[in-house]
Structures are given as structure tokens and as C-alpha cells.
Design a protein that fits this description.
The chain has 118 residues and is mostly beta strands. The protein contains no helices and eleven strands. The chain is globular.
Length: 118
């Protein structure tokens, strides 16, 4: 069964750091030359795009995470990472990864909760 599964969420104090992971199984990132993305959805808000890394390694960040978050892909381990630093309460959300290799190969994870609170 092809899927992606996120992990690494949790409770952290403002100013802290967390590292999220997203592991793919049943397919490989290289198989479909996939673009990988992290999204997040806060309570009562729409899902928003956080960061994108394409197959060539090109990266785009949302303005609200620039300089604080780093997206990394490991095609050998079939894993996507999101390294988050200087977290604020506004970063509290469920974080989702997405592996997209065309409309027929579009995989979303179930999400991992990140809570930033003192």
C-alpha cells in the first residue's frame, strides 16, 4: 500500500525546535520524480502551504517560515523532513506532508500535531 506517514510532532515551548519526518512506503520519491510539500492547518483556519522541494532540489518557503524552517528530502531513505526552529504559538497546527508525482500519484499523510505553548 502506497502511503506517507508523518512523525515528530509534539508539544514545545515558544522559541523551541522540532523536527518532523515523513516516510514514504510502497513507492519511491524518485520513481515519480516527486515534488514534496509540507502543509499545515491550524484550528479554524484553512490548510496552508509551508514549504516545497521539487525533484531538482529547488525550494520555496512561505514567508511566515522563512529563516526558521528548513525542508530537506532524502531520496535514498525516501524521507522528507521539516526542521523547525524559533517556534511561536502561531505555528501550532497539524502538519501534513504531500508527495506529488502527477494526479495519479498524489499522496497525503494523516498529519502530525505541533503545539507551541508555554
Amino acid at each position: 500500500q502506497a502511503q506517507v506517514v508523518e512523525s515528530g510532532g509534539g508539544l514545545v515551548q515558544p522559541g523551541g525546535s522540532l523536527n518532523l519526518s515523513c516516510v514514504a512506503s510502497g513507492f519511491t520519491f524518485e520513481q515519480y520524480a516527486m515534488t514534496l510539500r509540507w502543509y499545515r492547518q491550524a484550528p479554524g483556519k484553512e490548510r496552508e502551504l509551508v514549504a516545497t522541494i521539487n525533484y531538482s532540489g529547488g525550494i520555496i518557503y512561505a514567508d511566515f517560515v522563512k529563516g526558521r524552517f528548513t525542508i530537506v528530502r532524502d531520496n535514498v531513505k525516501n524521507t522528507l523532513y521539516l526542521q523547525m526552529t524559533s517556534l511561536t504559538v502561531e505555528d501550532t497546527a497539524v502538519y501534513y506532508c504531500r508527495a506529488w508525482g502527477g494526479d495519479a500519484n498524489d499522496f497525503w499523510g494523516q498529519g502530525t500535531q505541533v503545539t507551541v505553548s508555554s
